[in-house]
């Protein structure tokens, strides 16, 4: 299956879709890893899986199909804030961020529909994968988005990897979401030691999720920052979720 561009009828946006399909995918229903902010991180996750799957018993990283979703470069900033933030009656934005945050926000429900009703049917029609073993990876705003999906009760993903989640968004609204009665996801939260208040936010959302989801871990990466934490910690995150099959 080749890389392609798709326009969503739900978000009215174009996305670049990238694929890594291991040779053994024709013989097995492999796990599926969906990488948000694919322009930044698809190649990172692809390289990690491609290299380490060859000795998975030693590396702890299993073979998987990797799919990246990327916004168009010229509108990336605006569309990330639209697609990765949840609807709200109002948005509380501190003064230092008002100048850099776009006007259009709260499109995460439509972005969900794009993935579930437009992208996934294409994938299902062309690839053999284990529908019960899907992973979504997000960083920063998309790290917030994947945790929002969890807290709203979405069941499409078995595994959730969130790096440096923007827990601060809209006055820490995720911390005020009601806890789920019970959740059986496998959740990895990673943050760089040098990310300041982001470390505190990651710890607080971990403490919240741990109340209703047993398989959850947090990793504060020594000496790492907002820009380096994904690259240096992706192997650790994949090893964690692979512990559970």
UniProtKB/TrEMBL annotation:
SUPFAM superfamilies: alpha/beta-Hydrolases (SSF53474). Pfam families: Esterase. Belongs to the esterase D family. Keywords: Hydrolase. The lineage of its organism: Bacteria, Bacillati, Bacillota, Clostridia, Eubacteriales. GO terms for molecular function: hydrolase activity, acting on ester bonds. Transmembrane segments: none annotated. This is Esterase. Gene3D superfamilies: alpha/beta hydrolase. It comes from Clostridium sartagoforme AAU1. InterPro entries: AB_hydrolase_fold (IPR029058), Esterase-like (IPR000801), Siderophore_Hydrolase_D (IPR052558).
């Amino acid at each position: 299956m080749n890389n392609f561009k798709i326009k969503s009828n739900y978000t009215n946006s174009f996305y670049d879709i990238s694929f890594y399909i291991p040779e053994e995918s024709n013989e097995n229903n492999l796990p599926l890893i969906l990488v948000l902010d694919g322009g930044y991180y698809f190649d990172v996750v692809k390289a990690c899986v491609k290299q380490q799957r060859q000795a998975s018993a030693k590396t702890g990283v299993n073979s998987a199909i990797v799919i990246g979703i990327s916004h168009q470069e010229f509108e990336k900033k605006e569309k990330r804030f639209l697609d990765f933030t949840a609807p709200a009656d109002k948005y509380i934005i501190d003064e230092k961020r008002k100048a850099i945050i776009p006007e259009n926000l709260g499109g995460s429900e439509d972005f969900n529909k794009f993935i579930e009703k437009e992208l996934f049917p294409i994938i299902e029609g062309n690839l053999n994968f284990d529908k019960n073993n899907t992973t979504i990876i997000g960083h920063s705003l998309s790290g917030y988005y994947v945790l929002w999906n969890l807290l709203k009760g979405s069941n499409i993903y078995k595994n959730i990897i969130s790096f440096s989640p923007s827990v601060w968004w809209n006055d820490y609204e995720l911390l005020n979401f009601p806890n789920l009665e019970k959740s059986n996801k496998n959740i990895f939260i990673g943050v760089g030691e040098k990310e300041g208040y982001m470390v505190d936010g990651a710890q607080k959302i971990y403490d919240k999720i741990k109340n209703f989801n047993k398989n959850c871990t947090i990793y504060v990466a020594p000496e790492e920052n907002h820009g380096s934490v994904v690259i240096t910690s992706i192997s650790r995150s994949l090893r964690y979720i692979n512990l559970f099959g």
